[in-house]
Structure formats: structure tokens, C-alpha cells
Write a sequence for this structure.
């Protein structure tokens, strides 16, 4: 059975209607993400976020109790959009296709949400120690998926890899260049960069080139 993430650090709200609280928090996350991307967490104020939402400060504090709570919600949403469950859904019948599918989907999700991934890196130290540990566990789940696919390939004689976990960490860091070093990629298309990342990883696993 795949490991399930522990619950995110508790974010307390003062609204009794759970469905309405969830909808308001979704709106809050969208607006706060935009504000944090534009201004950085430390320079953004709760007033800025409330203004972006079109709310009063009093209304905002019905859904969270602090600016730090908002950052936790934003970071949790980043991992939701990266969709670890989607990576797990890659086929396990064929180790190569399973690994290729999981890594390719991760590339797509990071590229699609690159501003948010950059935000997560940039603001990580603003999280509480408990929140930092939670999101480390969340990232470790991604390593687990890729390392599991590699280990299966090694068992079946498809891949050569002495340390699947370390290889998985290396793959994740390479994919994160889509967000962290987007400026350095120049005029390379995403399609070209994605293919190169997949090709490099497969060659490192000893997969012969097609043809």
C-alpha cells in the first residue's frame, strides 16, 4: 500500500459551514498565491491579500488566523496541483513505461505550475518547523514513486541502478530546473526540454536508445 501523507498543519477558521469555508479558502489560496509571487511573503501584507480577494480584513480572518496559515494553505495547494496520486497511476506492468509516465507527468505538472513551485522554494523558510517537516514528507512521496518504479525495473532486469532513491532525488531536482532556472533555458521549447530530461534519465538507467 502506498504511504499516505500526514495531515497538513492545522489551519483554524472561525466559520462553522465547512463547505463554505472550503470554497473561501480556495479563493484565498488563488489570490494569496498571486500576491506572494508578485511581492514575496515577507513584503506582502494581509491587507494586500484581502484587497485581492475583495474582502475586508475581518472577513479574511474568519477563514485563517494568520498570514503564516495562508502560506501553509498555498503550499498544500502546490502539492495538490503537482498531483502525486497522478504519478502513482502510471502503469506498473511495464517498468520503463511506468517510470517514463511518472517522470513525464511530473515534468508537465511542474512546468504548468512553475511559478508556484518557485514560490515554494523561495518561501520555505517562512514556514513553521512543523510545516516544513510536513512538506518534506510530501516531497519524499514523489521520491518514493520514482524510486519504486526504478527498483521494479532493476528487479526485472530492465534498468541498472545502484541507488534508486538517490537517482529519484536527482530526477526531481533536474525537473525543478523547469521552475528554478526557467530563465536559463533560453529559447528551448518545453517539449524539447522535457524530452531531453526523459532521455538523460533513461540513458542513466542503461536503457538503450530507440532503434
Amino acid at each position: 500500500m502506498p504511504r499516505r501523507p500526514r495531515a497538513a498543519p492545522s489551519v483554524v477558521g472561525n466559520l462553522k459551514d465547512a463547505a463554505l469555508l472550503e470554497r473561501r479558502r480556495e479563493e484565498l489560496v488563488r489570490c494569496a498565491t498571486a500576491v506572494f509571487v508578485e511581492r514575496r511573503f515577507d513584503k506582502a501584507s494581509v491587507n494586500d491579500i484581502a484587497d485581492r480577494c475583495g474582502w475586508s480584513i475581518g472577513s479574511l480572518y474568519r477563514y485563517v488566523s494568520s498570514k503564516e496559515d495562508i502560506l501553509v494553505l498555498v503550499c498544500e495547494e502546490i502539492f495538490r496541483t503537482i498531483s502525486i496520486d497522478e504519478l502513482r497511476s502510471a502503469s506498473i506492468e511495464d517498468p520503463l513505461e511506468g517510470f517514463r509516465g511518472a517522470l513525464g507527468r511530473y515534468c508537465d505538472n511542474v512546468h504548468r505550475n512553475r511559478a508556484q513551485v518557485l514560490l515554494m522554494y523561495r518561501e520555505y523558510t517562512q514556514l513553521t518547523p512543523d510545516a516544513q517537516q510536513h512538506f518534506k514528507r510530501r516531497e519524499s512521496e514523489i521520491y518514493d514513486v520514482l524510486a519504486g518504479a526504478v527498483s521494479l525495473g532493476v528487479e526485472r532486469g530492465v534498468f541498472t541502478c545502484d541507488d534508486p532513491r538517490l537517482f529519484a532525488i536527482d530526477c526531481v531536482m533536474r525537473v525543478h530546473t523547469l521552475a528554478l532556472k526557467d530563465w536559463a533555458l533560453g529559447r528551448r521549447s518545453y517539449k524539447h526540454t522535457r524530452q531531453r530530461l526523459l532521455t538523460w534519465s533513461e540513458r542513466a538507467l542503461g536503457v538503450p536508445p530507440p532503434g
Confidence is low (pLDDT under 50) at residues 1-6. Residues 18-65 form a domain with the Arc Repressor Mutant, subunit A fold (CATH 1.10.10.60). The chain has two domains: 18-65, 79-204. The radius of gyration is 19 Å.
